[in-house]
Write a structure and sequence with these properties.
Elements: H1 2-19, E1 31-33, E2 40-45, E3 57-64, E4 70-81, E5 84-97, E6 102-108, H2 110-122, E7 130-138, E8 143-145
Parallel strand pairs: 1-7
Antiparallel strand pairs: 2-3, 3-6, 4-5, 4-7, 7-8
Length: 153
């Protein structure tokens, strides 16, 4: 019972934060999840505002923790729906990043934004959006992939 109330409060806060923000400037409050072995980590996230009619992109700073240069990173955005986790989108971003280098990137948030808006309109409860790195391709052609999570459906 207490978990259901807590979940409702979180959904209400998410709904209020979306509905009460000015129409011309919106942000999505992502939670970040990283696999312990991931060679690219999240360093900083500043929810930058995007305009309602814009491409809906937000900035995130990542760091190459590995000893190899990266060629591209695949980001995954998910939202929980009850006990299930829905993969909303996968985005491949190609860029070269040397070992130890930090890089500020923009990720598309349009699909997550649409899911949140649909949930608000239909009065459904959803969880907080999650952004994670699920794959990294290195300049030498090797690939790191996050282990599959059976909760994703």
């Amino acid at each position: 019972m207490r978990a259901a109330i807590s979940h409702r409060r979180r959904a209400l806060l998410l709904t209020l934060s979306i509905c009460c923000a000015p129409v011309q400037a919106q942000t999505i409050p992502f939670e970040f999840q990283s696999h312990p072995d991931c060679p690219v980590s999240f360093v900083d996230y500043t929810p930058s505002a995007f305009r309602a009619g814009s491409d809906r992109r937000q900035f995130v700073t990542v760091k190459n923790q590995s000893g190899k240069g990266t060629a591209e990173v695949i980001f995954q955005q998910t939202i929980s729906r009850g006990a299930n986790i829905d993969i909303v989108t996968l985005e491949r971003i190609s860029f070269i990043m040397r070992p130890g280098e930090k890089r500020r990137l923009s990720v598309s948030v349009g699909d997550v934004w649409a899911r949140i808006q649909a949930a608000v309109k239909s009065d459904k409860t959803i969880g907080k959006p999650v952004l994670s790195v699920v794959a990294v391709e290195f300049l030498d052609g090797t690939l790191w992939s996050a282990p599959l999570d059976p909760a994703h459906k």
